[in-house]
Amino acid sequence: MINIEELTGFIVEAKAKTYVGDGASLPACRAGSHDIGHRRGAWRYLDSYFGGTDFAGQEAVWHDDQPCWAMNYFGRIVRPELIDARRAGAVIKAALQAMYREKRHFLGGMEYQHAYGCYIDSSRGATAHFSGRETIFVDGEEAYELDYRGGLIVP
C-alpha cells in the first residue's frame, strides 16, 4: 500500500524539479511528445505532453516500477490578445514555485498576483482522487485555462 503523505511529498518534489525547475528534457516516449522526469530511490515521475500554446498531457508516478498515481490535463490560451504562451508560462511557473515552496501540496486553493496576470488554482479532493482548474486573468478577463484530474492507480 502506498503511503499518501510520502507520495504527495514526492509529487511536489518532482514537479518542482521538472517543469517549474526547468528540468532537463527526456527522449520522447511517444512520437511528438515533450517529456520531463524525476527519480529518487524507488520513486519515478514522468510528465509527458503534446502541444505548446494549446496542450494536453499526463503526469504519472511509479513506485518500485509499479504505476501508482496519474494526472491528466488540458490547457489553452483563451484570449491570445491578452496573453501569449511565454507570459502564461512565466505566471504559472512563478505561482507554482510559491506553492511548492510550502512542500506540502500541489493542488488548488491558491491565488497569485503576477505582473502578467492573476493566477487562480481551485480544486476538490486530495492526492488520492482530485479534479481542478487553473486560470490566468488579465485585466479581469480569463485569458488562460487548464483543467486537470487524477489520483491513485489501484491494480
Walk me through this protein's architecture.
The longest helix is centred in the middle third of the chain and has 17 residues, at 85-101. The chain is globular. 20% of the residues lie in helices and 49% in strands. By secondary structure, it is an alpha+beta fold. It has one domain (4-152). The mean pLDDT is 95. It has a 9-stranded antiparallel sheet, with helices on one face.
Summarize the structure.
The chain is 20% helix and 49% strand. With 155 residues, it is an alpha+beta fold.
Note the main attributes of this structure.
nine-stranded antiparallel beta sheet; 155 residues; single chain
How many structural domains in the coordinates?
1
The Rg value, from CA coordinates, equals 15 Å
Strand order, biggest sheet? 1-2-3-4-5-9-8-7-6
Distance between the termini: 11 Å
- Strand segment count: 9
> What spatial form do the alpha-carbon principal axes imply?
globular
Largest sheet: 9 strands, antiparallel
Secondary-structure element series: HEEEEEHEEEE
**Uncertain ranges:** none
User: β content, as a range?
Assistant: over 45%
Topology:
Blueprint: H1 4-17, E1 25-26, E2 34-40, E3 43-51, E4 55-63, E5 66-77, H2 85-101, E6 110-114, E7 117-126, E8 129-138, E9 141-152
Antiparallel strand pairs: 1-2, 2-3, 3-4, 4-5, 5-9, 6-7, 7-8, 8-9
